[in-house]
């Protein structure tokens, strides 16, 4: 009978136990919880063979990641080779808690592994008695190590991938929809408020932002009697005739008079609406950029906003990629779907994709067909974006062309190329785009290297100039010092001559 060893993973390292009598152990485990909780009896049947502690927290995280994936690290392989290597591995079997790690150990190290209920139960009681098996590790130390490893491992799970940050798209599209409602509500409030003073302007200016800008610029309608205000109004509305009409109507308006405080409050609120509108434009630009990075094919096919709403409704790009085309087709129409199922009427033909331009351009009798076709292509695009290593817009543009061709086919009956032909062309275009991107990256790298060399050369030139200046200064200082010494020596010699003359006299 083969010797049975049990591999036990700790937050502090790997440990190996020897199960001496498997039949007695099974009987002990079946007897009662009290019997297994007796460390003396349990230790007589299961003993510690070796313990290999991790040297650093990074090593612990690396090993726990590998164990979760069912992989054998170099550290674990060396530990098992040291303890069960050579002729031992043919005479023993290794009990493990997870089937996946057992399969990897068997494949990499040729050690027979067992993962069953008995091994799981033994592992449970080893964990219960571990602080007694390894006295150096107190219960507090084990808990602290587990806590630190849990935090470190959790951080690795939530690492942000910039190219897959679909949660940013979800937040952006949700905020964009909310801002559209808020801006419309606030603009209506400005119109109603300022309408008491200049009610006719509501009919002359339909754009909400222009209306708020005019409220800020005009304030009191009597100001429009000043010719200088006419140009300001023209700049805002962008139409000379409309601007002149506003000025003309302002002179005969039936609105009530406002105080200065009223105008200040209206102006402040109108500025908020204009600021929100500017932020909304910036947010939409941000959404476009994110969609072109995260889901370029979906954006090229169906647009940034509808693509973002599909991702938001699905919960993530991964979820959207897993959905069948039939689900993508009615995504966003859940209420109508369940109502139809409850009342046993026709189910909806489209959900969020109804807002696509393709369905709007399709004839009424073909809207259902084009919605199915579009949902199919959107499902393909989302899968390409989710699972390709380097997604770009090539396939999305090809899929969009296919939808356009399908619309033309419904209208004229003109034959379109097969899907296989189109995809073969798309693959060629994709490979070419990857080649161009690689060349561009190479050129950019070369340019940066050259710029760095030029900068270094420039730094060297500056250093040489500075050195030459210092050398010149040193030479000048040396010459000045020599001249001063010569003058001092001449003065000293002159004094000696004078003393000598006086002595002779």
TrEMBL record:
GO molecular function: snoRNA binding
Superkingdom, natural source: Eukaryota
Pfam families referenced in this protein's UniProt entry, alphabetically: Nop (PF01798), NOP5NT (PF08156)
GO biological process: ribosome biogenesis
Localization (cell): Nucleus, Nucleolus
Keywords recorded for this protein, A-Z: Nucleus, Ribosome biogenesis
Ranges of biased composition (kind: Basic and acidic residues): 492-505
Biased composition (Basic residues): 439-448, 466-478
InterPro entries to which the protein is assigned, alphabetical: Nop56/Nop58 (IPR045056), NOP58/56_N (IPR012974), Nop_C (IPR042239), Nop_dom (IPR002687), Nop_dom_sf (IPR036070), NOSIC (IPR012976)
Predominant subcellular localization, coarse grouping: nucleus
Region named Disordered: 439-505
Family note: Belongs to the NOP5/NOP56 family.
Protein known as: Nucleolar protein 56
Species annotation: Eutreptiella gymnastica
């Amino acid at each position: 009978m083969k010797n049975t060893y049990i591999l036990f993973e700790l937050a502090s390292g790997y440990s190996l136990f020897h199960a001496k009598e498997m039949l007695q152990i099974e009987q002990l485990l079946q007897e009662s919880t009290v019997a297994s909780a007796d460390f003396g009896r349990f230790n007589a049947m299961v003993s510690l063979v070796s313990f290999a502690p991790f040297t650093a927290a990074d090593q612990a995280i690396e090993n726990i990641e590998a164990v979760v994936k069912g992989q054998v690290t170099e550290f674990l392989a060396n530990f098992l080779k040291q303890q069960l290597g050579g002729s031992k591995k043919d005479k023993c079997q290794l009990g493990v808690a997870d089937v996946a790690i057992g399969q990897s150990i068997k494949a990499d190290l040729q050690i027979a592994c067992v993962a069953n209920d008995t091994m799981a139960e033994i592992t449970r009681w080893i964990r219960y008695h571990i602080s007694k098996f390894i006295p150096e590790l107190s219960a507090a130390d084990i808990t602290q190590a587990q806590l630190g490893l849990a935090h470190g491992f959790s951080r690795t799970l939530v690492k942000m991938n910039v190219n897959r940050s679909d949660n940013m798209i979800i937040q952006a599209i949700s905020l964009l929809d909310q801002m559209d409602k808020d801006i419309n509500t606030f603009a209506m409030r400005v119109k109603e408020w300022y309408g008491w003073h200049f009610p006719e302007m509501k009919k002359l200016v339909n754009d909400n932002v222009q209306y708020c800008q005019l409220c800020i610029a005009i304030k009191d309608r009597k100001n429009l009697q000043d010719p200088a205000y006419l140009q300001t109004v023209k700049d805002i509305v962008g139409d000379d005739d409309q601007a002149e009409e506003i000025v003309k109507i302002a002179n005969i308006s039936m609105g009530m008079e406002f105080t200065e405080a009223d105008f200040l409050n209206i102006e402040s609120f109108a500025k908020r609406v204009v600021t929100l509108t500017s932020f909304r434009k910036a947010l939409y630009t941000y959404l476009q950029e994110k969609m072109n990075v995260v889901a370029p094919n979906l954006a090229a096919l169906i647009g940034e906003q509808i693509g973002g709403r599909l991702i938001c409704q699905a919960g993530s790009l991964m979820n959207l990629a897993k959905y069948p085309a039939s689900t993508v087709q009615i995504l966003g129409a859940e209420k109508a779907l369940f109502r139809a199922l409850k009342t046993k009427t026709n189910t909806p033909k489209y959900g969020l994709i109804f807002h696509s331009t393709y369905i709007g351009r399709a004839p009424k009798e073909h809207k259902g067909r084009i919605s199915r076709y579009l949902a199919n292509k959107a499902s393909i695009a989302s899968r390409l974006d989710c699972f390709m290593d380097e997604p770009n817009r090539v396939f999305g543009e090809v899929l969009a062309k296919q939808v356009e061709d399908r619309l033309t086919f419904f209208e004229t009956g003109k034959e379109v190329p097969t899907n296989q032909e189109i995809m073969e062309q798309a693959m060629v275009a994709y490979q070419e785009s990857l080649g161009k991107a690689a060349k561009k990256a190479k050129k950019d790298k070369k340019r940066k290297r050259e710029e760095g060399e030029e900068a270094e050369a420039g730094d060297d030139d500056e250093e040489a100039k500075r050195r030459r200046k210092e050398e010149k200064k040193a030479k000048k200082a040396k010459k000045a010092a020599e001249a001063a010494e010569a003058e001092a020596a001449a003065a000293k010699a002159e004094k000696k001559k004078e003393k000598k003359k006086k002595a002779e006299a």
